[in-house]
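Pilot study result, target chain (83 residues):
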Amino acid sequence: MHGTIIPTQNDLADRLAERFGLLLTQAQLAELLGRSTGGLRYSLCAPSDARTQALKARGRQIGRRVYYPAVDVARIISGADFA
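Predicted structure:
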């Protein structure tokens, strides 16, 4: 594909941080992935693939809420980090 620009992992992380901030809520992560919040919660409760397992492992609980670092989400989306 001539003329197609593939964003690097750092570009993606910068875009996510610009749009959502450094930490994404579950609602923001669901919006990013094109899923409903309930569907994302269900997937994270019973992860069936490597990306979902990686997302669940990166979740950081602050109080009663779970947040996902934009840098880690960018790594997972770009396929650079699954473990």
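One observation from the pilot: The chain has one domain: 9-78. A full batch analysis is planned for the follow-on phase.
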